[in-house]
Amino acid sequence: MILKNIHKILILVATAFFVGQVHGQDNMKATSAGALQIVFPSETEWNILQEGKEINFHLQTRGGKSDSVRYSIANGFVKEMKFDSLGHFIWTPGYDIADRINTTKNFPVVFEVQNTAGETVSREVVFKVNHVNRSPQIDELQPFYVQYKTQNVYKIDMGSVRDQDGDPIVFVPILEEMPEGMKLTAAGEITWEPSIVQFNILKKGPRYMEFYVEDQPSKARTKGRLKLDVTQMDLAPDFTIIPQNTVIRSAENNRINLRFTLSDPNGEDDITTFNFISENNRVPHSALIKNTPTSYEFIWEPGFEFVKDPFDTLAFNITFYVLDKAQNKKERTVKMVIKNTVDESLRDNYVYNLYRGALVNAWGLLEQMTEREGQLKKSYTRAKKGKRSRSLLNASLGATTGLAPTFTQDKPVARGYITTIGGTTVATVGTLEATEVIGKSVNGLLDRFNYVMQKKNELQNKGDVFAREYAQKSARRQSDFIRKLDEFKALMNLSGLVALELDANWENKKEATDNAIKKAFKDFVPLTKDEN
Predict the structure, then answer these.
(1) Do 123 and 256 fall within a single domain?
(2) Is residue 532 part of a domain?
(3) Element (H, E) at 358
(4) Is the distance from CB of 275 to CB of 239 less than 8 angstroms?
(5) Does residue 530 form part of some domain?
(6) Boundaries of domain holding 92
(7) Number of alpha carbons in the 13 Å side-chain half-sphere of residue 6
(8) How many domains does the chain have?
(9) CB neighbours of 426 closer than 8 A, spacing ≥ 6?
(10) What is the DSSP string of 400-430?
(11) Is residue 221 within 8 Å of 172, Cβ to Cβ?
């Protein structure tokens, strides 16, 4: 019994000694570890984060009087952060934290630790979140339905293209992926007028074109794709008119020329008919000329009888129309206003006949004066010969009378006859010569000859000037032509025709051909067949 009690006492003493020894070791440990501290990750720049990238770490402690600790965030907590009491921290910063202007944003967070010994410590960490640019996003786009021979325009729906960072975006073409002739602007507008070959390729099956969507200023790109296909609608054909005037004003004998280019959104082979309807049935349908299936011309020249007197103008409508296989119709109306004009060709022929007639009269008068000139020249020559003969006769008779007493000495009667007859004859011939009964006066003939020559030269010179000045049709259209014609004709109404002793009934034996007139007046220009 005593031994049991001693044994219990020994156990109690040993236990008390062991507990005291352990407690003393704990006090020594707490004293050597120092104050409670928070230990963060040791990597450099561990607190510099990127948007969209997760950070995941455990907090640790050292020192303090107890190993049992509890972690918390005293300040700066963000709802996206995950942090438990064991010090496990997880956070993925959103892409909306920073932007392209403010590229970094700071988040100060105060972590706190408390142990069971009642010790508390806190420490602030500043997380620096950097902006991360994201490429634009492109949803599926509506197809681009194109029409033939039409400037097709397609605007990319900006609701299908977006940048999550709110950056400005531009569209960048991929040239090798685009059909020839297509254009893509930076704003996303596509224009394209497909050729017949391109359109026929699309009719066999749709094609795709690719492009980039690029944000600014980072220039991150995303490739987009657009479907190209022919229109599924049966659209009406169309045509253009050159010149593009709704009212055509012209005049009689002037050519009207309109050009037409036809097109059909469903292809050229869909066009069946192009024609016109005129309110005036004198416009011939042959005026519409087909050059190619899509190219026509309207060529028409209203004659001088189109607008009947007393009307000054005539107005009417011509409606041009085009039809396709489905009888879709497109029409345009052109108003024609035709002015009544004088037939210049008739007037040109009239004034030409006046011009030629005056030269014919002048040519005839020159021929008559030339003939008269020859007659006067012969008379002048004959008159000169007659005067010389009379002088010889006077001299002969005078000599005979003077010599009569010599060679009739033995014949007194004969001498008397010779003297009487010779003297009388000389006296008589002299009297007749004085009164110009025998022959013509040489001086008078010379004056008339010179007068004819003067008038002939004057008429020749004036005729040459008149023929040269009004040889052209345009010159004869001038207002002074009639005045000059009257002056030229007045020159031929010579006041001295009586003095010229021209025969009023004289007829020219030569025909007044153009060659004959041109020979007389070298600048004369006959009227050609084209001008008739």
Answers:
(1) no
(2) no
(3) helix 344-407
(4) no
(5) no
(6) 37-130
(7) 3
(8) 5
(9) 394, 397, 398, 401
(10) HHHHHHHHTTT-HHHHHHHHHHHHHHHHHHH
(11) yes
Amino acid at 345: S
| pLDDT higher than 60, residue 23 | no
Among 234, 211, 232, 233, residue whose Cα is nearest residue 223: 211
Nearest by Cα to 82 from 66, 65, 58: 58
For residue 323, being part of any structural domain is answered with yes
94 neighbors 51 (Cβ within 8 angstroms): yes
Please tell me the distance from the alpha carbon of residue 47 to that of residue 125, in angstroms, as a whole number: 8
- ∠ CA 438-440-445, nearest 5°, is 175
The residues pairing with 319 across neighbouring beta strands, listed in sequence order, are 277, 333
Check: pTM over 0.90? Answer yes or no. Answer: no
> Which pLDDT value is given to residue 7?
46
442 to 159, 371, 501: CA distances (angstroms): 122, 19, 16
In the listed set 313, 341, 369, which residue is the last one of a domain according to the structure?
341
Predicted confidence band of residue 497 (pLDDT cuts 50, 70, 90) = low
* 107 and 68 both lie in a single domain: yes
In a domain, 251, yes or no: yes
Instruction: Write the pLDDT tens digit of every residue in 432-456.
Output: 444 444 445 666 667 777 777 777 8
Separation between Cα atoms, residue 96 and residue 441, nearest integer Å = 137
Residue 289's CB is within 10 A of a number of other CB atoms, namely 11
Residues 6+ apart with CB under 8 A from 505: none
- Distance in angstroms (rounded) separating the CA atoms of residues 55 and 48: 10
Dihedral sign (CA 76, 77, 82, 85): positive
Residue 242, domain CATH: 2.60.40.10
pLDDT for 227 equals 94
Q: Does the structure show a pLDDT above 70 at 187? A: yes
Q: What is the per-residue burial (b if ≥16 Cβ within 10 Å, else e) of 482-517?
A: eebbeebeebbebeeeeebebeeeeeeeeebeeeeb
Cis amide leading into 293 (omega within 30): no
Residues 365 and 501 in one domain: yes
My answer on whether omega of the bond before 173 falls inside 30° of 0, hence cis, is no
Please write the tens of the pLDDT for every residue from 108-163.
999 999 998 889 999 999 999 999 999 999 999 999 999 887 889 999 999 899 98
Per DSSP (E only), the strands in 325-404 are 329-339
Judgement on whether residues 48 and 181 belong to the same structural domain of the protein: no
Q: What's the one-letter identity of residue 442?
A: V
Place of tokens 């008068």: 365
Distance of CA 286 to the CA centre of its chain: 29
Residues 245 and 315 in one domain: yes
